Amino acid sequence: MSRAFFVNGESMVAVKSNVASAIPVLTQLGLTDSPIRITPNFRHQDIIVDAWGPQVPPEIQAFLLDVNITISLVHFDPVVLAVCESLSIGGGAADGTTPRAGVLMGGNAARFAVGNNYIGLNILSPVAGVPWRFLYTYMTGPPLTFPLGTERSVVTTNWRGILYTNDPFGGGTAQPGTAAGTGALGAVIWDHILDT
Amino acid sequence: MANAYNINGETMVMAKGGAHFATVPGLGGIVMSQPTQVGLASDSIRITPTFRHTNVPSADFGPAVPPEVMFNLAHVDISMGLIFWDNQVVDLCMAEAMGGLGAGFGAGKMQPAGQMLGRGRPLLASGNSFISMVLLSPVLGIPWRFPASYLTAPPLEIPLGTKASLIQLNWRAIPYASPLLSGGNFTSGNPRGKDVLSSGVVLWDHFTDD
Predict the structure, then answer these.
(1) Cβ–Cβ of A61/B7 closer than 8 Å?
(2) Which residues of chain B are within 8 Å of residue A181 when distances are taken between CB atoms?
(3) pLDDT digits (tens, 9 = 90+) for B35-54
(4) Which of A43, A177, B11, B12 is deepest in the core (most CB within 10 A)?
């Protein structure tokens, strides 16, 4: 692929969650008033060796990553947004209702299985043709701001994508690309295939 | 082997118990006479050998510094904080450490005071409550196996609440031996019969159970 200006296009945000939720199929959430910002957080840890002094490492270990996605919604479905909020707090029964404290977001379940409250966050790419799919996300709060007034509301949302698995040893059904005994090897945090 | 960073990898804790696990009722389907996953830790697992040495003093060297030291065996402590674990397997390990899982005895119900864990039987035989505990090594390829280990308490801490329980476990491994296992009865022709011999007893090795 050669150099070019990268224009993603009209970046519709679409979401999908478990089969018992109100968004069991890919559902439009909305459009933004500004670019959607994807911020991977690579995790690295220095290995300090006295022979190289106390501050500069001769080697570094990579310890996976998580990712933040910042979305400012201006033309959106408030019902779908409320569903995402409920799922993000662990699957409340209704908008503004909480589950019990300490509920596991993934519920030891595979993707989109009952009990798995993670949301598949999809960002369409009608011009560049490189959509983004974050397999396991939830809305963080803060920052989550819902302004109310006479102006159109621009809702500031932040999503966190993680490498959820129901077996950290590898081979869990939530991460079918992994194998028992290999941990996170082959786990997927994002790809460029849309949910259906 | 050259110098390198030693990265053990995803260190799964495995346990294998005596043959009695194949027949004792009420175990929820867990057959711990085969290698069984105990769980994964939230942080590094720590292996702490305790070597026992005794000074051999000599007046010529004064009272403080010996010219020779005697080795008097060792034991090992293995500490771990498990975050992703099988509570039934941990329960069975606790029961074994409390004297054994006989018929009608589960974790929390006492065996008689003074019950021996090994009961003079070979390791992994029916009735021997020592557990062969293995730490897998998927990256480095150097697993650790402690053939005669048991849970000590303290420290054994089971937090209960709304957060995921991080259970603190400490295992102690000893060089188990029993005079009942030494071949033959004592006779004038077999002066070592029923003796307890430490030489050659395995405290740890780098194999896995099968």
Answers:
(1) yes
(2) 10, 12, 136, 138
(3) 999 999 999 999 999 999 99
(4) B12
